[in-house]
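Review session, final week

We close the course with one last complete record, chosen because it touches almost every idea we covered. It is Ribosomal RNA small subunit methyltransferase I, a protein from Curtobacterium luteum with 273 residues. Go through it on your own first, then we will talk.
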Amino acid sequence: MIVLAATPIGNLGDASRRLVETLSNATVVAAEDTRTAIHLMRALGIENRPRLIALHEHNERAKAAEVVELARDEDVVVLTDAGMPAISDPGFPLVEAAAAAGVTVTALPGPSAVLMALAVSGLPTDRFSFEGFPTRKGGERRRLFASLAGEQRTMVFFESPHRLADTLADMAAGFGDERRAVVCRELTKLHEEVRRDSLAALAAWAADGVRGEICIVVEGSTGALDVTSIEDGVRLVLERVAAGARMKEAATAVADATGLSKRDLYEGALAAK
């Protein structure tokens, strides 16, 4: 059996009793970083020294078959550096391979930056979309946000601190300056911070530099835009194109948000360029 074990995302006190018991009895641990796994077990007072297998983003597909075969005869505990394996972390290819091979997969629940950020955000939590890390490339990132402009669910993103200001500025361009958002920094740690404001205001704040692990929670589209004419719709399409979106993606987003014809918007925008 494969056991996906959630680990603390910053506060060691969040380690569950089940995690400690499981690691205390484990014979094989597949870890994103074996050094981090050893440090965690020592910090938790675990004297057990299981066999350690490195399983990270660069080798997980190649290692999946080996780990699955081991899991036929004994439990293999899977750890990432923080949080739940397979959620924006190594683990998905292994679970996919195990499912295909008929090997049981279970999980030990625990800390989740995604769910904690969503819970403390003050934004709707009944429906949400986790988008992971946006691409590092500015043009692709702007096109991504333009394509998500009509998304009505609350959206959760991860981001690195040195790209935060640029990402928030691109979000403001794609979603609108006044779209509500929340930046959650250093969750569960000593300097935890939750900052709520408009995307434009958050981008200005982040321009001074921010440190730590970052989650961004963005309000979903609040409904259809108050646009009834193709001319106004075309203007919105062109604004998204100017922000970096592809024409077809921009036309689709505006059509979804307004109810106007995607074909008419696309053709009108082409003619206006």
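Two points worth writing down before the exam:
The chain has a mean pLDDT of 93.
The chain is about 45% helix and 20% strand.
Good luck, everyone.
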